[in-house]
Amino acid sequence: MLHDLFIAPFFDYEFMRRALIGAVALSISGCPLGVFLILRRMSLAGDALSHAILPGAALGYLACGLSLPAMTFGGLLAGLAVAVASSAAARWTALREDASLAAFYLVSLALGVALVSLKGSNVDLLHVLFGSVLALDDATLIFLAAIASVTLAALALAYRALALDTFDPLFARRVTPLGEWIPFAFLALVVLNLVAGFHALGTLMAVGIIMLPAASARLWTRGLTGALPLAAAIGAASSYFGLVLSFHSGLAAGPVIILMAGGAYFLSLIFGKTGGVIRLRRPKRHLEG
Amino acid sequence: MSAGAIRLENVTLGYERRPAVHHLSGVVEAGAALAVCGPNGAGKSTLLKGLAGLLAPLGGRIAFDGLAPRDIAYLPQAAEIDQAFPIDVLDFICMGAMRRIGLFGRIGPQERARVAAAIAAVGLDGFEDRQIGTLSGGQMQRALFARLLVEDRPVILLDEPFGAIDAATIDDLVRIIARWREERRTVIAVLHELDLARRVFPQALLLAREPLFWGATQEALSEARLAEASRMVEAFDRDAEECRRDETPDAA
């Protein structure tokens, strides 16, 4: 019974196995980045960047159809361009970063949808907006795994730099010559993961698997070292249970994965050990000293 | 420890063309202790940011004799530290070792000893695994001083190190400043506590956007000069013309 419910779908169907591997890879690399996005007060920047990927991917699609390399390359280029352009706009104009990001991403989203509609069908548009986690081919799967590996290696190597720059950017800039470049390298990693997420979950859902588990993890932990693996674990669990629920209910897999992550988030809001409502509103009896 | 002098040559610092520190010249000798005083909005913090290399001058030049930017340690105002960030006191103080160990190096036994000594010196024993968000204002200031001790730089800039802090904490931190002076480090501090400035710092700069006096602290902080400083107009002159003070009458 339990076997039928939770394990059989993955034994019996290859596409389910592929979906699970892809989504778990995405969670393991994306969720820790999400924790840093939250700490840098850039929760909405991830959302904006994920939309920014769309026109580039759409151009790739116009040129080569649903081709992995073309859409990936286009998406990367567009995402990095918007990341650089909006931080430049924030630095050199009167608008703050959030305003310029919002402006850039609205324009990008409109441009992307317009470009796709130029040639594609509504099915293609749905694919681009919501992804196709149940139809990952070999090349896409390897691509997702490669990005997850690169991200984890980069996080391990640059953990101190990233934590330092997130906490005290002025200090980072004074103590190391690399300080100026840390924010850009971080944004590049985020764009990379969003492009990966784009293939599996689509441009509208990709950021969900990055941010929701990260927000949940912050409600359970005090330190940073606990939050990063916990976020990845919540993301992976959401992927697994989302796929199971989608298999049995017939609901679209991508949105259900995000809904699972959303469910975990709402539970954390209520029960979270360090930041949840219960803990904050009904603290335990005070200590002696 | 010896350090070179810091020369300010007709320095103007500010934001969006508006001067916050206007035409300041002078020399901070190696091993000097200088208090920077003046009313709110006088440009004291701006001057420190300029010295720390965080703000480029609008005019003039700041020259460091035999000092690199990496020789300068800087204590920002308490409000500029994000105390909500998840980091414990030990890790926070270890940040001070960054210049020596870099982004990838290990914190070896030598650095550990240095950090332990700094924690003991500021009286934060037993606080090592507390999150900085749980520290009081005074404890946070002690932690910031411990980070400076670990940084171990020849030049130390302090921006309002004693704001909203009780007398016992001030005494402990003043003792650390005295130790830095014995070690011949240069200390430049923005202070609102004038008695403290008179007691601890032999030299003072009285600033009210324009430099009013730079010299012996007793003279700089006399009643007459302080009254003059308090008359400073904080608001911008909307119709301000471009400043021509640098140009000699002949050249104009």
TrEMBL record, chain A:
Entry GO CC: ATP-binding cassette (ABC) transporter complex
Regions crossing the membrane: 20-39, 59-87, 99-118, 139-161, 181-212, 224-245, 251-272
Coiled coil, from the record: none
Keywords of this entry: Membrane, Transmembrane, Transmembrane helix, Transport
Cell compartments where the protein resides: Cell membrane; Membrane
Gene3D superfamilies hit by this protein: ABC transporter involved in vitamin B12 uptake, BtuC
SUPFAM superfamilies: ABC transporter involved in vitamin B12 uptake, BtuC
Membrane topology: Multi-pass membrane protein
Family named by the database record: Belongs to the ABC-3 integral membrane protein family.
Protein name: Zinc ABC transporter permease
TrEMBL record, chain B:
Record key words, sorted: ATP-binding, Ion transport, Nucleotide-binding, Transport, Zinc, Zinc transport
Membrane-traversing stretches: none
Gene Ontology biological-process entries: zinc ion transport
SUPFAM superfamilies cross-referenced by the UniProt entry: P-loop containing nucleoside triphosphate hydrolases
PROSITE patterns per the UniProt record, alphabetical: ABC_TRANSPORTER_1 (PS00211), ABC_TRANSPORTER_2 (PS50893)
Pfam family, one: ABC_tran
Boundaries of every ABC transporter domain copy: 6-234
Family of this protein: Belongs to the ABC transporter superfamily.
Protein name per UniProt: ABC transporter
Organism: Methylosinus sporium
Source taxonomy: Bacteria, Pseudomonadati, Pseudomonadota, Alphaproteobacteria, Hyphomicrobiales
